[in-house]
Amino acid sequence: MGATEGSKDADRRIGRRALLIGGTAAAVGSAVLARDELARLWWRTPGVEKPRVEGAVDFSGAQWVAASDANWRRADRPDDYGIDMVIIHVTQGSFASAVKVFQDPGHKAAAHYIVRKDGHITQMIRELDVAYHAGNRAYNERSVGIEHEGFVDRPEDFTDAMYAASARLTARICARYAIPVDREHIIGHVEVPGTDHTDPGEHWDWDRYMKLVRQRTAAAGRARAGGTP
Predict the structure, then answer these.
(1) pLDDT at residue 45 in the model
(2) pLDDT digits (tens, 9 = 90+) for 178-216
(3) How far apart are CA 63 and CA 8, in angstroms?
(4) In angstroms, rounded to a whole number, what is the distance separating the alpha carbons of residues 171 and 215?
(5) Cis peptide before 200 (omega within 30 of 0)
(6) For residue 113, what are the CA distances in angstroms to 11, 33, 92, 151, 190?
(7) 3-state SS assignment for residue 217
(8) C-beta atoms surrounding 48 within 10 Å
(9) Given this model, what pLDDT does residue 94 score?
(10) Residues 13/211, Cβ–Cβ less than 8 Å
(11) What is the largest CA-CA distance in the chain?
């Protein structure tokens, strides 16, 4: 499950410390903004930020259940932070328990999506925004996090329905942001630098999963080429 960020994302609020209006940067208090942070604030100019619809989802068929706003940071990705990675997690608990902790402001972590054993997908954070799921600020900013219901030591938790639904979701994310469908860009939580997590664990079938993602990506490409919506 997404790691508690703590000091690893202590500066997650820096984006709210300044606002560019008419080309003028206004610093709040004595905060000093790095040049790259300042450059990302252009979209905060009134009328520039992408429109948002309450309860909207980024993946058709997903159910929206909002995470606590203490567990993510408002952004305008991919304009302020490019997205080039999908990170696979396992909840180490039930679907219901994952939803509960992601709604808990004291948890300080949440992923964008949760995939249930039966293939149901819940979205809790917009892809526009930075979820605190990886335990590494830079990886949070560049990735979409997907949790999967179950335990790493129980291979039976990783059902056919779960693999299929998650592969559809990952393929759609990769297509949306032109993310290469390979193991350098679709990784497990365990592969994030600095993390102490082991998910998705040895029982997650990466060969099967990547094959499914590639199949979904190829099918979507054929549909687009043939003019199918």
Answers:
(1) 52
(2) 999 999 999 999 999 999 999 999 999 999 999 999 999
(3) 30
(4) 9
(5) yes
(6) 24, 31, 15, 17, 18
(7) helix
(8) 11
(9) 98
(10) no
(11) 57
CA contacts within 13 A on the Cβ side of 179:
28
C-alpha span between 31 and 193 (Å, rounded): 28
β-pair type (72-73, 63-64): unpaired
C-alpha 122: how far from chain center: 12
Rounded to an integer, what distance in angstroms lies between the CA atom of residue 197 and that of residue 134? 9
CB 127 within 8 A of CB 77: yes
**Residue 219: predicted pLDDT:** 86
Residue 222 structure tokens? 């054929």
CA distance 39 to 112: 25
121 contact partners, CB below 8 Å, separation of at least 6? 59, 61, 62, 63, 113, 114, 115, 165, 169
Ranges of residues in the chain with a pLDDT under 50 are 5-32, 46, 228-229
Place of tokens 């998910």: 199
Look-up of token digits 């500066």:
11
